[in-house]
Design a protein that fits this description.
Aminopeptidase, 3-stranded antiparallel β-sheet, alpha+beta
Length: 156
C-alpha cells in the first residue's frame, strides 16, 4: 500500500535518508551540500512524499523537495525542478516497492504541474537502471554521483 506522506513522517524520512545516501560521507562534500537538506524542516511548500506500507509498517519512501540556488541538493538543476529521493528498507528491496513508490511520486509531481524532476545517484548504483526506465537521463557527473533529470508529461 502506498499513502501520501505528511509532516508527521519527517522522522521516517530521516531514517530513509540514511538508506538513500549511505554511500556518501556524513560530512559535506566540496559542493557544500549536506544530506540533511533533504528532510530538514520537512513540510514546507514544494515538499511531497509517498510512504510504502507492509502490514501497516512503513518500509519505504519517495519524496521530493524544491531547493534554492544557495541551498541546493546533490541533484539540483534549478529552483523550479524538485529533486527526488527514494529508499526502501534493505529487507524489502527487490519486491517492486521502489517502482510503486516511483510511479506514485511521479504521478503526484505531474498532478502538481511540475515539468521536470531530478535526482542524484551513485554512478555505479543498480538504481540507475530503474531511473532510466522511468525516463531519467544523465545530465552531469561529479563526486562519484550522477545527476539525472526526467521530463514529466501529462501522459506519464
Amino acid at each position: 500500500m502506498i499513502r501520501p506522506g505528511t509532516p508527521q513522517d519527517a522522522r521516517f524520512l530521516r531514517d530513509m535518508l540514511r538508506h538513500a545516501y549511505y554511500w556518501r560521507p556524513p560530512e559535506e562534500l566540496e559542493s557544500g551540500v549536506h544530506a540533511m537538506n533533504y528532510v530538514e524542516n520537512w513540510g514546507r511548500p514544494g515538499d511531497a512524499a509517498v510512504i510504502a506500507l507492509d502490514s501497516g509498517f512503513p518500509v519505504g519512501a519517495a519524496w521530493y523537495r524544491l531547493f534554492k540556488e544557495n541551498r541546493r541538493g546533490y541533484g539540483f538543476v534549478d529552483e523550479a525542478t524538485p529533486e527526488l529521493s527514494i529508499a526502501v528498507v534493505p529487507s524489502r528491496r527487490g519486491h517492486g516497492i521502489g517502482g510503486e513508490l516511483m510511479s506514485a511520486l511521479l504521478d503526484h509531481a505531474r498532478h502538481e504541474s511540475y515539468k521536470t524532476i531530478s535526482l542524484s545517484v551513485a554512478k555505479d548504483s543498480p538504481a540507475v537502471g530503474l531511473y532510466e526506465r522511468y525516463g531519467f537521463a544523465k545530465l552531469d557527473e561529479r563526486d562519484g554521483a550522477v545527476t539525472m533529470r526526467a521530463e514529466l508529461s501529462d501522459a506519464g
